[in-house]
Amino acid sequence: MAPAELAAKINNNSNPLVICVGPAGLIKGSIETGAAHESANLDKLKTLLSGQDRNKEVIIYCGCCPFKNCPNIRPAFNLLLSMHFTHPRLLDIPHNIRVDWIEHGYPLKEAK
Q1: In sequence order, what are the residues at sequence separation of 6 or more whose Cβ sits closer than 8 angstroms to the Cβ of residue 26?
Q2: What is the pTM of this model?
Q3: DSSP letter string, 18-83
Q4: Burial class (CB within 10 angstroms; exposed 0-12, middle 13-18, buried 19+) of 72
Q5: Domains of the chain (ranges plus CATH)?
Q6: Do residues 63 and 21 lie in contact, with contact meaning Cβ atoms separated by under 8 Å?
Q7: pLDDT for 84-110, tens place per residue?
Q8: What Å distances lie between residue 22 and 11, 12, 35, CA to CA?
Q9: Are 70 and 100 in contact (CB under 8 A)?
Q10: Which residues, at least 6 apart from 15, have a Cβ–Cβ distance to it below 8 Å?
């Protein structure tokens, strides 16, 4: 999924389940489970997903580095597939979260 597509969904309140599987969940409405290359965080993701409708659109992202090098996306996406989610999606972050999301002015979580 392109960042602009997810930003539009968030701005239109379509409420997809957005999960950060990396070090920092900055996208508005996203849930953080931690870096998915760590087994404890992958277990957190599994626990979160276990209570979800398998037909719900689930969008995962990391943003720590270029998508092709990300150590967190693949384990998280494989978990979604193994749990039989019918609409798993990856947020396409070709560079990093700053370049591909923040600099475009897409929705961010409010600072605490």
Answers
A1: 20, 63, 97, 101, 102, 108, 109
A2: 0.93
A3: EEE-SS---BTT-EE---TTSHHHHHHHHHHHHTS-TTSEEEEE--SS-GGG-TTHHHHHHHHHHT
A4: buried
A5: 3-104 (3.40.250.10)
A6: no
A7: 999 999 999 989 999 999 999 999 998
A8: 23, 25, 4
A9: no
A10: 29
